[in-house]
Input
Amino acid sequence: MTTYTFPHNFLWGAATASYQVEGAWNEDGKGESIWDRFSHTPGKIEDNSTGDIACDHYHRYEEDIALMRRLGLKAYRFSTAWARVLPNGRGRLNPKGLDFYDRLVDSLCAANIEPFLTLYHWDLPQALHEEGGWTNRDVSYAFADYAALMVKRLGDRVKYWTTFNEPSVVMFDGYLVGEHAPGIQDPRAAYQVAHHLLVAHGLGVQAIRGANSKAEAGIVLNLWMADAVSEDPADVAVADAAWERSETLFLDPIFKGHYPTAAYELVGEDMPKIQNGDMALISQELDFVGINFYSRNLFNAQGQIDSVPGSEYTEMGWEVCAPALRRMLVKINRNYKLPPIYITENGSAFKDEVSTDGKVHDPRRLDYLKQHFIQTRLAMQDGVDVRGYMVWSLLDNFEWGHGYTKRFGLVRVDYETQKRTVKDSGEWYAEVIRTNSVAE
Ligand code: IFM
Output
């Protein structure tokens, strides 16, 4: 048996996002977000559900923090709903909304759990969408004002501030394929949106630091490793080209200060309009970068291989391939000058059932996590500076266009009763945290 031990201050945690867990969509003065509007539009969500109630975390956050404590979590990654605090995205403040996050942070601190806060996890205030949403550069300035407001109120207790979660998904799913809110399909708009998200990130970092010099500022990017089936140069060339095309659009501007050449080749005249000073703003140094990792794409000389014989797949249709996480971490560490890394999301959706003993036995999720923890530890031995790991997700929750059909939680949520049941993977994770090690 091999035991993989982690550094003593390794930040083990779990993650959620406001729209996916909070519910209380129109309570206590909250404004409408684009996800409220999108999920209320018939035909947009697989099971016709909404995030109106979700996990009711808005009312049950204390119970959920008690669960986090029981699991021994050292950190909780969550996002704040912009429209809960500023119902119109700018201007009038909703004190009750801000009070909620104040109470949440206080309770986390009392439980000795580090709050790891994301300012934008996709729920743009609808009022800002009506001003053009992320196609309108002004929204980036509104984001910076919102960031400053949040840091002024919570910065005495929250150290880790993330501007955006997965900007590529905002751009791609929201504005290119339209499967996410706001449901737009417009390539030219999409690339301008990407640029405005990056500008907002840069302005946000300045606002965070301006409001509290002790705050640590970062961003969360989702990356899929592009693997080649063999070392044959023809296979490798296709995999490398795919990586350049799909994974560097945000990495390069943030860590190199320019858009990748591949983007210019791919997008041509749809490349965004860039103003003087934008690239310096976007590429200012960060205190950390969050990486979300779920799976990889596999290529041969002919293109992408959709189904890999012998591989296991999750309910999302994503291949389980933990060694790709190590390869990806080593690759980005080699190609970019990166600040400390946190794995800000990693996890898997499988079909769970409550057994007759009342428990949820989820060996496949447990094994998925174990393999990814081990590969992360190996990447750290390769020289990658990983400081913490947030499992996606603490709770089963609203999985965007899939509604409640996919369960990612360490904790099962019965959506009828809101009963929480810690799954076997959650119990096992508690032991990993307690011993700060993984055994195989
Ligand atoms: O649920 C999402 C999360 O909101 C962002 N990253 C991927 C997760 C699983 O699809």
The CA atoms of residues 115 and 158 lie 6 Å apart. The radius of gyration is 21 Å. The first helix runs from residue 18 to 21.
